[in-house]
């Protein structure tokens, strides 16, 4: 019984991790085709990936978009989360459902919509439309993480601060925001990772001048079939893992993402 | 010197939709007084506290704090100190920063803040803990920090919302005595909210017993216990047995009533305007009843020995079941379950209310 259960767990893990494992291994193969199993160990595809110009500029652009889009969505998201949590107003339920149910809307729809809007406004495919699309995409996730953080703050903290003579603005600045800081940082990081990985919508809204790393990778694959893709995958996983480990270490990601109960 | 009322509420009413949470509350609290709002959950005591604090807006009536009209004043201008059951310490500040919060909000200088915080921490015996984070403190210590934070601003009113309910019993009693001592030494006017009658009796100068949004009686602990003005008060505070009886007559401020052939003297006020022969409910305290040679006959049906005393439940036939509190030694030697007993009402400080 126990053995059967363990085998089942192992099989599941294998099933989930297999594609990643294969891609990682392929990155270390010296041959010019993506193949499995690995035959000759080499780091040449890492070198190629790191030196390829489109990847370099793509990385910088992706980082830029991720930082700007996640910062904007944290600012917008925190205000929206505060409003939804603390006030009741007309259309609140609709807004809540819309903002908290991102899976219902496909990314390409948002990309396409942003493209049409930009054209209508006489904007070419510049940075504003890329950032706009990314903000729309990550906002629900940011909002959800901030909403959970806000829910976990004892409203009496604010009540006490008011009773001690602090005006509402001062209370937000000295009590609400500091208590919300882990949620803000976690939401920001979550948004940045999502934005950095985003491809579908980006494909619609980027031009050659604004192409992000995932789009650059897509364009690369159309021309070449060598393992530098696999090498980039490894770098991606490494970078994201490091960020998540740091975040978990300092912020307690489980609590922010609402997968763990708040401890009082 | 004229004595200014620390708090006055003139007919304050609060409605939530169609529900009236507070019906015309009238309340006068003297400077330095300790007044408790006592009642079961949902009785309106927390609503009343939130109206005083300014977290809720009154639908009718006026509130004065220290003689100043505050009905429309926001919370932060009411000059209050509040302590909640959940402590509500700011988790990102150490103890000293927590205590100094109200001083910083008032723009007090750094030097004065430091000395007043030290003074307040000494008052609650936590000087050693100034650099700790709230999470590093025990529940009792956190509550003392919350108290220091409320007192350091020298508030016009100290508002306490069930501050000890989260503490275990021994610590609760200790904290009650400590709070009472601090309150007396500072002379700070205090409004205390609780559902715990023992806490209310032990600490208060006066108690306002509340039920269903009304203040039923505002009196000293002794007055509440010995001269309850409302059947709810008689039933809620302390133990009592209710006997069905008849009103006989009144003379002055005393009245006589009869239950199962026993004559009892009760305060006349609650029976105003009643015609002789009317049905009344008579409340008697278990400690005022005793075994007697002549009295209401019955049978002991249960005995709970509590050491210094014991509680006997007596089946008195038509009169129903009556609770007696007798000395523990006497209960062990004489009152086995099943033996006959006569209950004497000579010392019963009974009260009666019309049915």
What's the CATH first level of the largest domain in chain B? Alpha Beta
Report the CATH topology name of the largest domain in chain B: Rossmann fold
| Amino- and carboxy-terminal Cα gap of chain B | 47 Å
DSSP helix fraction of chain A: over 70%
Instruction: Report the structural category of chain A.
Output: mainly alpha
Rg calculated over all Cα atoms of chain A: 22 Å
Helix content bin of chain B: 25-40%
Spatially, the strands of the biggest sheet of chain B line up as 6-7-8-3-9-10
Which chain pair shows the most residues in contact?
A-B, 20 and 26 residues
Number of helices, counting only DSSP H or I runs of 4 residues or more of chain A: 12
CATH architecture of chain A: Orthogonal Bundle
Task: Walk me through the topology.
The complex is a heterodimer of chains A (264) and B (355).
Chain A: H1 2-26, H2 44-51, H3 53-86, H4 92-100, H5 107-120, H6 127-151, H7 155-163, H8 168-197, H9 200-205, H10 213-223, H11 228-251, H12 253-256
Helix pairs in contact in A: 1-11, 2-11, 3-6, 3-8, 3-10, 5-6, 6-8, 7-8, 8-11
Chain B: E1 5-16, E2 19-30, E3 34-38, H1 45-53, E4 60-65, E5 68-69, E6 80-84, H2 95-105, H3 110-123, H4 139-151, E7 157-161, H5 169-186, E8 190-194, H6 197-203, E9 206-211, E10 214-219, H7 221-226, H8 231-236, E11 241-251, E12 254-259, E13 262-267, E14 279-284, E15 290-305, E16 309-315, E17 321-327, H9 328-334, E18 340-344, E19 351-354
Parallel strand pairs in B: 3-8, 3-9, 6-7, 7-8
Antiparallel strand pairs in B: 1-2, 1-4, 4-5, 9-10, 11-12, 11-14, 12-13, 14-19, 15-16, 15-18, 16-17
Helix pairs in contact in B: 2-3, 2-4, 3-4
